[in-house]
User: Fold these one by one.
Assistant:
Number 1:
Amino acid sequence: MQALEKLLDRIIQRVNINLRELGFDVTPYVRELIPRMQMFKFYAFYGITPHHPLNFQFTHSNLAGSYFLGKCRVTNSLLYKSDIRGDELKKKGTVFQFQEFEIPITRDEQIDIEDSFLIKTLVHNYSHDPETLEKFFIKDTISMHYANIHGSPSDGCFLGPFSTVDMTTMHDCVIGAFSYIQAGEISHKKIDPGTVWVRSPDNFNFLYRYEYNRLNKYINFTAGNRPKGLLFDFVEDHKKEFERVFALVNIETPRSVPGSASLDRYAVIKPHTKISENVLVAQRAYLQNAWLGKGANAQENCYIINSRLEGYDITAHGGKIVEADLGKKVFVGFNSFLRGRPDARLTIGKDSIVMPHTIIDISNPLTIPPDHIIWGLVTNKHDLETNSMPINDFSKIETKFSLGNMIFEGNGASFVSAFRHRIDHILEANGAFFNGAENKGHAQKNQSISFNTIQPYPMGELKGLYPSIIIQP
Amino acid sequence: MNTFIVKDLMVPLSEYATVQEGSTLFEAVLALEKAQEEFDYEHTPYHHRAVLILNKDKRVIGKLSQLGVLRAILPKNERTQHIEDISRFGFSTSFINSLREKYRLEEGILDDIYKKATRMKVEDYMQTPSEGEYVDEMTSLDTAMYQLVIGTHLSLIVTRGDEIVGLLRMSDVFAAVFHAMKSGELTE
């Protein structure tokens, strides 16, 4: 137990040193956030598949309830119920294209977590930083509940709850709760809660900022307190169901799941759920009375309840869809919260893009026409007028545009094209286009996976720490 | 050039614009205007560009530059703060200026400028000199030049022991360098 305390002190000190210029002290945010009992109560587990390199190295760390896949190294860190999903890491012998450079990858990429504390955080994708192609590092970093570190090497950072950093290298930054950042590289920045920032230098720059008083209802995180708000309550309300799937050693796959679909054994599947061909349901996803058409997917920490997704729909990490009907190929970005009511359903037309970290929370029926882009906070038709527009119109922006709290500079067509390209890439990577022989993706490859569990020292000075372990073929 | 020392080029404190702690921004601007009118321009063509703030013991506690005055009178409210925040997110200068222009048309930027200046206290806007902004009056001009360039200062406060005796302005140092260049050109 003493070792665990010392480790936490060490991590806090290292992060604070990095953030001293911003005058940000992480201590009151994290010191007592996770009861120590919880940190040795849960086992950690790792996946073994023929498709991913088997190489895990765990040293002087606590890994309570965390999941590992691919090539990972964890040193002097605390990982609480986090997913370290290395199934999209770069492979030795491939070539990474960056601007006009074609850079050969000389060894399998590794997720390298050191001196960090990740709480219920998802780490996924691969390093997009051309300066560190074979090492996706997370160093001297603390991330809070349901944060996503997606293809984003991080050094000396603090990520608030429900924040996402996507394809962006970060140095010495504070990312506020429910903020989404995709900006290539950032350093020494303090980002306010509820900031949605997507920037590609010389191409486009999108910025939306939630009004604090409206965001507080959904997420509110202050020093010395656990995260509060509707988003946090929603997830906590469904926690019990996950405890059951994690407690069982063997769990049966429902017979109705087609052979080309993948349903993770650590997902919660409630009655009246339909899984079609090429569907991917990741661990920690929650489906209840959900109809998932061909090629649709539900990634980690997704909730799809009383809803119908026609097919090829993407629900990115942390997306929540309740009482809604989505047409074909609707993209729902990271951590978005879409909530209709039984008597007030939400309908989103085909080929629409729901920007990451969008909240649609309605009490009267709302229909969003096909081919629309939606962002920010929408609670009624009036909000929709200033938080959405036809994608075709967005593509016509040539220099600058603003609507409601959103400002945009650059080329709209380039912005839309980047999203469309990414949506196709995600569908392809997830195996949505599998034809029985070709275009295999996660949905097909993740079927042949087995899990092993590991446990910490149960008592004594090292209580809570996992022994140093190297797992290789 | 290399025979000059700081005191050869400094402006004595008595000739510089000064105000007491507690003065308003408007009083500081008046003091600057007065000092400019009374200054002997025989040896240098350059105007004063700052006001020194003195405490009750006549010691210099800060410096208020022209830039500092302009910064002080710009409106600071939620909307202007919002525009400043946006500039941190990589938007172009022309984009940020378009937001400021919109604000100017809707709310005006420099209205009530006199009223504002009579309410503001100089100590709230002055710059407290850092350790690198003091130079002894016997220091060679060459060395003082390094101090100006490396610290990117527009002037240095000149000391004699514990006493502050004047100000070494970048404009005067530049004039001396320029003069030396021209002398060199004539002798070659």
Number 2:
Amino acid sequence: MSSTDATEKEIVQKEMTLNMGPQHPATHGVLRLVVDLQGETVVGCDPRPGYLHRGIEKWMESRTYHQIIPITDRLEYITCMNNNLGWVVAVEKLAGIIVPERAQFIRTLMAELTRLSGHLVWLGTHALDIGAMTVCMYTLRERELLLDLAEIVTGARQTVSYVRIGGVRNDVPRDFLDKCREFTALFPKKLEDYDTLIRQNRIWLKRTKGIGKFSAEDAVNYGLTGATLRGSGVNYDLRKVEPYAAYDKVEFDVPLGREGDVYDRYIVRINEMRQSVRIINQCLDMLPAGPIMTDDPRYAVPDKATVMTNMEALAHQFVLMSKWVNMPKGEVYVATEAPKGELGFFIVSDGSGRPYRVKIRAPSFVHVGALPKMVTGHMVADVIACIGTIDIVLGECDR
Amino acid sequence: MDADQIAKMIEEKFSGQVLGTVTHAGQVGVMLKSEMIRDVCRFLHDEPSIRMDHLADLTAVDYSTYPGDTGPRFEVVYNMISTVYGHRIRLKVRVSDDDPRIDTVTSIWQTANWHERETYDLMGIVFNGHPDLRRILLPEDWVGHPLRKEYPLKGY
């Protein structure tokens, strides 16, 4: 035996620590993982989040409830609308604001369009990470249509800041509804296309089946939520458990997985997209006429035309924009079903126009926390599949 | 089961531990003494009629500049929901400024691990018995805990 030959035993026993990220295209942002390897097998994983920490919770304490809306855009920057909605729903719960029905349906409609957009980015990048490059080209093409739809309504493509406390900023333009229908007519066919590309693909199956398994009990214990949890078969969807916006008025199913592996979570998210199309179609059919802003004069931001012609409205707008109104004292924790999972806002109010303390319960943060359990025992290449399947955005994880 | 009933059950089981309840917007918060927090959490998690299996959030609030507040400075807050029954409850535990510590609940919910690390990092609460209490969002050599009220928003 020559001196360069190592016995098999020596190779297996030598442990190596590998640093992945923060600058790595497959970490979906600036996630850093310190991975302990034995050969190619992962024996330990220590995620080091925080590279995108901007002190958002601290910052929120010095902003009014209204001024926080655009900050929420910077949490999960792929699906801003759902963050806006999560924040606003929490504030409305705190103050007991009643939102008119039309606004609720518009919110639901926009939130589901954004959910599709988020899931498309997930599918594209997840497939790209595992080696199916084509899917990404297609999903980003369809996402472009969704961004166009967002632009028609909000004027912005991503950081929309569209949902307002008590309603939405503006009504939807007339041609938007037709464009939406065009999209929902087209999209299910496209979804089949992506699905045929990978669902039966042998490489895809090899890379996803049996990888990153979570039993139902473990998944709940580790705080997983959203499709990441439902892949393990736990029926927990906040749109059903604690309906907000108009989710109690539309019909949809909650897709569930069985095995709790990467593949099942893929199936769940694909089916969720089908359900989102269903919800969007119902919203389009049921969209009631009426106001889009609450009639509670304390919280309703007056519309621009009135502000320009009415002295009182101008004064009220000035007060709302500069210091907001005094909110009731108390605290609430309100969670909504964002595309990544349970997005919760815990607000403590001291009775002023600015929150005393805000805690953001970000699904991505919790999911990254479950990553060590998910990847241990798998190969190093599976780490990439696991990062994709928990569907994280680091803006939200690090806050 | 509604949250008031759960609060009552905690009171019956742990008499002398409950300092009161607060309700806002239909959400119930139970104020507890800090000594038995792990036992209360264990009870809420294991009791078949409650089954608080999902610890949605764990955080802390610094009450030092809250108007009219005279209690101990920090409050550790546990928001939990049962994925089986869909009911929620919030536990609130005050800890003092001179020794802000409380027992970890990591052994009950794994998810508490990172929430507690974050609370330690940003608010400076120490969790007794935590398996791996390190800073998480800030660098290891960071000085101070930014979410405390005396920590400046600008100038660092």
Number 3:
Amino acid sequence: MSDTAVEIEEIGGGEFERTPVPSSKLKGWKSFLGMYAGEHAAGTEFMIGPLFLAAGASLKDLAIGLLLGNILAILTWRYIVAPIAVSNKLTLYYQLEKIAGKHLVKIYNVVNGVLFCFLAGAMITVSASAVGIPFGISFSVPDDVFGLSSPAFSGIVIIVGLIMAIVAAAGYNTVSKFANIAAPWMIIVFAACGLSALTQMEVNSWDSLFAEWDKGIDVVQSINGKADFGFWKIVIFSWLCNAAMHFGMADLSIMRFAKDTRAGWGPSIGMFLGHYMAWICASFMLAAQIKLTGDISANPGALAWSAVGWTGIICVIVAGWTTANPTIYRAGLAFQSLFPSSAKKYSGVILAGLIATAAGIFPALSGKLLDFVGLYGTILGPMGGVIFVNHYLAKKMNFTQDYADNKGANFNIAVLLAWLLPVALGLYFIFAKGLFPAYAVIPCWIASSLLYVFIMKLKKS
Amino acid sequence: MKMLKLISGLAIGVLILLVSILSFLGSMEVDNVKISMLIGTILWFVVTPFWLKEE
């Protein structure tokens, strides 16, 4: 992450939360390239990459599907987020407050905070998996979502989680700066892990690589049963795994610092480093492990240890920690509004850290990361649809733009209904009908957008 | 400053990335690769904060 990125984050944390960013603080589009490069090479990549192989994705589908999905994600940032960010120069939360009212934004914040906690919990599991390696403590993933691993591994998760929570509360900025230092190193280590895995598989041609990959899938499926993770599923997943950031407009808070809409191209390098190179390299590590030991468990610590030794252990711990740190911190800020004003300012962060630690104790949750990120986008993404139609259609279709701000309302019921009804339907299909969560993101986003326009017209607002 | 940047670049470019390529090509033993990577990692984290902070 570049220094400009640090500056953007620091400014974003305090100044201009309720005013447009002044022109003197705006950054050129190239500043965003460096920032996103660090953002998308994170602890989650160690977990997500191997899950593609474990889910039965073919290597050809993975290579082409990720390419297409990442391009679609970049285009979404460029053409959905950047124009609104550059035009209004407001954070997501203030933009949403102007439309939905401050009480509804609090509810959105808490939902966001809870989801952040589960993401941070997965990162605590990832870091703990590496901490346990030197002590000979590995983790098994129980079949039950809320099943525990060994008591020793649960103990490591609790220790790692509590340390992360305390550090996030007391030294967020220090870890954030450390994350900036670590980012380029981490990207190189991801590449080294991939090369090392290829060496372990004794790959010497494309054909032998494809053969080893297919053998890996055969072993996984002989144990877990037949699974299918086809081309379009990969495309949709890689497009929408960051849906909360682009379709959901969370990155308005970052791109409001952009001089022009070219900042929307900012995620391009980061996406291809983190969500292409890193995912594929991480998946090679599992293929190599299967060839060497027959073990199909996607344990990031063990995979990295096998590939590059102590460097891998350090990388997994750093990647998990530097991802969990801002996640716990942001969740904490969201929870802080639940505490009385007399409460300590770190109460929210500690609460978030405790919830994340509790989530991290259940390894199956991190094993469900492919589902979780889709769920995350399904729940938070639709609010971006409301912002989108408020920006582009309010004046054209003759309903009040920034309704809560203009009418002095604290709670815009139209936003609540437009958000909850499609999301409730999406969750029903996901949990009751077994729909792959990423598939629900765009239908929910479109439904929320249309529903908001419909309700606002019905209200004659 | 330039020297520090060079050391950081060499730490990750040579001691981590290049050795993993050499290992893939069969020109370097796995154990030596792992030691080289650890040295590269330590060098990166010792040297980089100095010039990154200055910038």
Number 4:
Amino acid sequence: MDINTKQDEIIEEFSIFDDWMDKYNYLIELSRELPAIDPKYKTNQYLIEGCQSKVWLNAELEKGVLKFSADSDAIITKGIVALLIRVLNNQKPEDVMNVDLYFIEKIGLQQNLSPTRSNGLLAMVKQMKLYALAFHAKNK
Amino acid sequence: MSLDIKKIRTDFPILNQEIYGKPLVYFDNGATTQKPQVVIDEEVKIYSHENSNIHRGVHFLSEQLTQRFEDARKVVQKFINAKYDHEIIFTSGTTQSINTVAYSFGERFVNEEDEIIISTLEHHSNIVPWQLLCERKKAILKVIPINDAGELLIDEFEKLISPKTRIVAINQVSNALGTVNDVKGIINISHKHNIPVLIDGAQSIQHGKTDVQDMDCDFFAFSGHKLYGPTGIGVLYGKEKWLNKMPPFLSGGEMIKKVSFEKTTFNELPFKFEAGTPNFTSAIAMSKAIEYIQAIGLNEIADYEKELLNYATEKLQSIKGLKIIGTSKNKVSLISFILENIHHYDAGMVIDKMGIAVRTGHHCAEPVMQRFNIEGTLRASFSFYNTKEEIDKLYNAILTVKQMFG
């Protein structure tokens, strides 16, 4: 499934929520389903520091596609991390490098990606793209 | 006399709105306060009918506004009971006020191996300017520790004083915990050693009467926007004897007397420290904010806010797993708290969606968080326009948070 199909799928899923609490409850559920990151990546080297919540991120390239794993100390942040991974996992580096993640705004979570960097998510997206760029350059 | 809160709330247009379809509950007054209509009207009036640069022209508008700007200075002078109006310097806010002293006082009086004392409770704005000064001058920064209630340890403070101590800089009220410090005691001790004291009044000025002469502080800094006034305006009060000895901080514009390429002579106080076109519009509007709260009564405000604090403390304390950080007996109407096993960011996101504005994070006071070994708190700070019903809403919101993340 390509990136935009996955984004549209998430937008569809979120369209049934008319209440913020339902949205958050869903994110909490997603956070619980996010596969645990290998503890060896839960170190400062893999930490994306936000002002308020932290994100740990690792990326590997397997058979030409990206495999991300991540964690966060805040549950809502972790739920959004899970969504990002769902969209960008198993994609080719060149598709992730310059991706337009429009689903974030469509499902009303752009507040979480504001430049205040309060939760590290914006930095995480940048880091995911950087990984993609690095793997792409290496592959060439 | 008790306050007519219902009527007071109609003075603040912003309060009458819904956020996410729920009536706004504004509990982020520690970050900035809302503005009464008189302040908003004043800015509009100046820009609509009176705007002109001050201290310059001989024309009508300029002279009229110069007079109003200087009248605003007198309003501030009376408000904090300064001895002279030239001891009132308009700045952009508390941060600039503190930077002015750290730079200017530091240039003149701080040398290698000298010492500066601050406290664990300080906001970054009362830490970093002193750190930079210490770097410039190779001076040493010393820090007053606090106890588990979030109170300064005065005995430890006395031990930090040495013949090398040049200045003490502490806040009157901690922005992160709400602790009201015994500034008079600290000033008294410092003065026995002939050490001047700067008081960061950003979080105290709005909660009760301020009397700089009675307090006997050497410098006092505060911001207009935390005092129901506009943003971008603040005050540095300094005793004349210090300000006269200090060199200018910023240069250009109003602060000069005569400029030639050989030598520039500086204007007298307070203009020496007001380089460039001052924010006269906001200075005048801030004086309207001061008159507004004076009309309500600073003592009345303090009493009512105390009532809100007691009510909220009791209510929040009853929630299992909620821990209040900062439990000094003497606090302003501000509660910092954490929820067991729930990240403050998660809690803040959910509380926000209920239309309640609280602050989450380290509140620009990371050393305080480090002292309590936490990464951040949720902070609800109350003003006289808040109500017990609003506190009930926060209480219910916290219960929902617990249910969602617990």
